[in-house]
Amino acid sequence: MKHYLLTWYGITDLKASLGLEETDGPILGALKTKDYTDIVILAYTNPAKDPNSLSNDLRIEWKKWLNEPPEKRSAFPREKTQQLVDAVSNTVTGHTIFIEWLKFELAAAGINVNLQIVPKELKHLNDADGIYKAAAAALKLVLDDNSEKTLTSFVSPGTPVMAYTWALIARTNPQLNIGVISSSDPRKPPEKIELPIDLLQPMHAAVQTEKPSVYDVIIHLLGRERMPIYFGMIQFQARKHIFITTQEYADAADTLSKLIPSEGGNTVMIINNPFKPADTRKAILQQAACFSKETKVAVNMTGGTKLMFAGALSACWEHGLEPFYFEINNHDIIYIRDGSTVPFVGIKSVTNFFAINGFSVITQGKWENRPCRETRLNVTRKLWEYRETIRVLYKNEDFQKYINQCKKTPNQPFYWKWKNSHASLDINMSTTLNINGEEISTPDCDDFGQYLGGGWFEEYVFDLLRNLEQKNNICDLRIGLEVNYVDQLQERKKIPVGEFDCAFTDGKRLWLIECKVGGIKQEHIQKLENNLKIYGGIAAKGLLISAFPISDNHMKRISSSTSIYAIQPEDLQGDAILKIIAS
Questions:
Q1: Into how many domains does the chain fold?
Q2: Cα–Cα distance, 503 to 484 (Å, whole number)
Q3: Do residues 32 and 68 touch, judged by C-beta distance below 8 A?
Q4: How many Cα atoms occupy the beta-carbon half-sphere of 450 within 13 Å?
Q5: 129 and 43 within one domain
Q6: I want to staple 502 with a disulfide (CB 3.0 to 4.6 A). Which of 4, 157, 475, 513 is the partner?
Q7: Is residue 200 part of a domain?
Q8: What angle do CA 292, 294, 298 make, to 5 degrees?
């Protein structure tokens, strides 16, 4: 008797094979139970990725680190970790590393399992049609073996859509009695999931040619990420929204429920165990039982754990609800019942992105709020031309102290002279600027110190971005926007916890722009990455723009990031920015 396990392998498995994960990863953990004699592993291959993206230098550094005794091995550098994972994930190189490591670990444990790895190209990570075809092909591969056998699918590795596909395979092939296992804790063996009988029955729902844009009720599975839930809230009109989550994310549910008022009120429903499908299934069925048969109910499956996904899917089949999933890369809504898609309607307001994550905008960052910006635009463009000349000023320690002091005590008079250039601000807010002997007419203003200290560059970048906004390539462009916590004490409401040089939305993501005139440092890169996670949520992007050349080391570090881009000064133009936004 053979015992087959069918699975995708995921990022946790890959990290385990690279030595970057403290656990065995889901697949090795499952095989160590010795419950399986054979395994078919599907491997997502991204055809757009360079199969040779793992550089020889990085490979050597990683191998040297990996060969050190575990007790003496320090953590692999964080910036190199992401670079390594990005280089090998979803490539033939990554598949080879994983399968060779898996064979070695099984041999070391004295476990004999027949391994088959099947690379499959997908259009994108959540290519529902491609994922289904790959899973069906894997099933056929096993069925072609005439031996007596049992079949089990493993839903933990991979994306929720991959997990759903295994459930769909089981549901449409009840005669095969396919078992389903899942792992909620990588330190423990996987557990068998008992799929409800209704989940295994063929589906008889009529295929809809057009999907409704209005539902009576939408039920959302909410976990760590808030953005996909809000996307589902604005995608469809609904009289009522219901959030199913755990106590850990109850505050997030409250925040989201206040963003879109509904006729029937919004409800937060707490479940005890997000790794127990029955808890989610029961919660949804309790809510659905309150509605008449005519009530149109959809379920946003995007948030929560994969086992919440499985429980919700079961409830959808049992009660005829419409499950949908937000595909983050292509920004499509996927209807799980038939695989059809509709485009995401988009978010046009920067403020909404901050509100979703629990922040309120306290300084709107509108260009017109400072009329002097427009009147000194010619000065701004001149400073860009003369940037190498004024670069000397940014290396002056006294000037840097002055700029830092401006944050506490603005509008302080100054007179700065460097080489054959000088600039000043007097007590009447009158300004002068002379660069290389050229007298540049500047409008009087009360922020000339901050402007000369780097504000000019933010305004220069804003002007480039403004051209993109006028062409409808981006929306809601801001400069100098500031935010604070929504629930901040009244006396501290005016003290920002976040300040952004420029910000905008492309309709799908929040973009945060960091403009630097004093040189790029590692801390600037890290700060931007952190800001994206805190303020923008899933899929947020950052752009680091410097008035002066960025070092090769920093460019290499930025290129390894999945969320940050950089533009060298010689490439700084609207078309270059647009190309990045569209990528």
A1: 3
A2: 15
A3: no
A4: 16
A5: yes
A6: 513
A7: no
A8: 95
- Which two structure tokens, joined as six digits, stand for 89? 């994930």
Residues of the chain above pLDDT 70, percent: 94
Per-residue pLDDT band at 51 (split at 50, 70, 90): confident
For 387-424, write each residue's pLDDT tens digit: 999 998 888 888 888 888 887 787 789 999 988 999 99
Task: Name the token pair of 444.
Answer: 């009087």
Same domain, 288 and 416: no
The model's pTM: 0.72
Distances (CA, A) of 545 to 83, 508, 527: 21, 22, 14
What does the pLDDT read at residue 264? 75
Query: Does residue 405 lie within any of the structural domains?
Result: yes
Q: How far apart are CA 404 and CA 301, in angstroms?
A: 48
Give per-residue pLDDT as tens, 236-257: 889 999 999 999 999 999 999 8
In this prediction, residue 437 carries a pLDDT of 92
Residue range 466-492: mean pLDDT, rounded: 86
98 & 82 share domain: yes
pLDDT of residue 204: 37
Same structural domain for residues 328 and 357?
no
Return d(Cα 583, Cα 579) in angstroms, integer: 6
Mean pLDDT of the chain: 87
Token look-up 């009720």 returns 217
CB 183, CB 191: distance < 8 Å: yes
360 and 280 part of one domain = no
Q: What is the pLDDT of residues 438-457, one digit of tens each?
A: 999 999 888 899 999 999 99
Distance CA 435, CA 422 (A): 7
Shared-domain flag, residues 32 and 152: yes
Binning the chain into helix, strand and coil, the percentages to the nearest 5 are: 40, 25, 35
Asked whether residue 93 falls in the same domain as residue 234, the answer is: no
Distances in whole angstroms, Cα of residue 423 to Cα of each of 353, 372, 376, 417, 548: 39, 17, 15, 7, 21
Same domain, 351 and 337: no
Q: From the centroid of its chain, how far is CA 441?
A: 45
Domain CATH number, residue 385: 3.40.1350.10
What would the pLDDT profile of 313-337 be if each residue is shown by its tens digit?
888 888 889 999 887 767 788 888 7
Domain that holds residue 134: 2-193
* Element at 79 (helix H, strand E): helix 78-88
Residue keyed to tokens 């500047």 = 442
Residues listed for the chain:
583
Strand partners, 502: 479, 513
Please name which of 482, 416, 494, 496 lies closest in space to residue 449, comparing C-alpha atoms: 416
